[in-house]
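Researcher: Re-running this chain for the archive, since the previous output was lost when a drive failed. Same request as before.
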Amino acid sequence: MKFSKHTFVVLLFSGWTLGLGWAIRGVFGHEYGAAWAGSMGSLAIVVATNRRDWLRRAPILAALGGIGWGVGGMMSYGLVIGYCRGTDFGNVSYGYTMLGVIGALYGFIGGGLFGLGLESDREKKAAWHSLLTEMFVCGYLVYVILVDFMDLHMTPPRSDNWARCLGASMAFAWFLHRGGFHRALRTAGYAALGAGIGFSFGNFIQTMTAVLELPVNGWNIMEFSLGFSGGVGMAYAVVTRDWPEANEPSRYVNWLSFLFFAALIPLANRRAAFSYEYYIESAERLGILDAEGFAAMQLNAATTILLIVTGTVIVFWWLYQNRKAFSTAVAIPILLLIHSLHYVSLATIKTNLFHTPFTLTNTRAWNLPALLAISLLWFALNRRESVLPLANSPGETGKRWTLIMMGAILMVIAITLISINTHGDSLPGIQERF
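Model: Regenerated structure tokens:
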């Protein structure tokens, strides 16, 4: 299978955007941080493909992608990363494997909901109420069976919300198969594959940075790897299949979706991730004498950014919707830029970037240059409408996916062997599961 230059740029643009969002998500954490990253990645694919029917539905698709990628934000993986820093094959391979599982659950629900938004139309409507009910019930039942009855724990004593996500993914997969949404199911599968491999291999990179004592934020690189690989997988599934023409979106639903991802998600991140106590501790760590003044300044800065950017983007969307001040092909890329810049700006305040010495090894300082690189990639796309598929993909067969899974297993074995043979038991953050 050969990729054209345009196809390669579409994949790179999509992966880089979700990678940036996920790297920033590490600053905010939880479902709300993951939702922001997911909405960025979903918007990026809409912008990169530049299909007019998808551009008109961009807010709906961004909201679905945000919800889908955000669901996995409930899972805990801090201890799993510690298992990968061990010195025995059992613990380390378990750690890398479980990171693959966690990443795959992120990607499956995130990619699947985005794909379902692309595939659902008048002739084949998705029963959203049934889907949500089935995912909730199955998530609850799988948790009860695996955790409560069978006493299976991935990272004791941390939460086992992975089981809820697993149950929800099982219900989602059956819903897509039963309803004939095979394109969405394929998107879920490749997003899961990319995010799973990206998370596992990304933590291998983090482990190596610790072994080599490199002065970089390996955790941040790992997060970028998850998002980048998940974004590439999701985009690959989209651009290598034909898709039905999407319906004209409801103006009401489009507005609600827009307010959800452009206003509500940022508000949730502002409320949950910024606290007075955090900045008091930050001031003490940074040697700032007026800790209370510093905390007030940072909180006010975050609130000001939230109000200005949210107000600006709402006015922008109103002008686009009501005054037709911008063409759709221009409005949605601008929307993606504002949405991404908003996340970068709040992350800058959250990490006290202006109050720490600048170094090239501080990966938090890379966010704005990374966003600039994404903007340059958009120009490289030539802003032409894509006729899908951009490249022909082999059929999805049991043999193909068996080979893919075997390749993933071999990767885990390889990075496990490298990890346990490159350091002793003095690596910081070591955890043992067994």
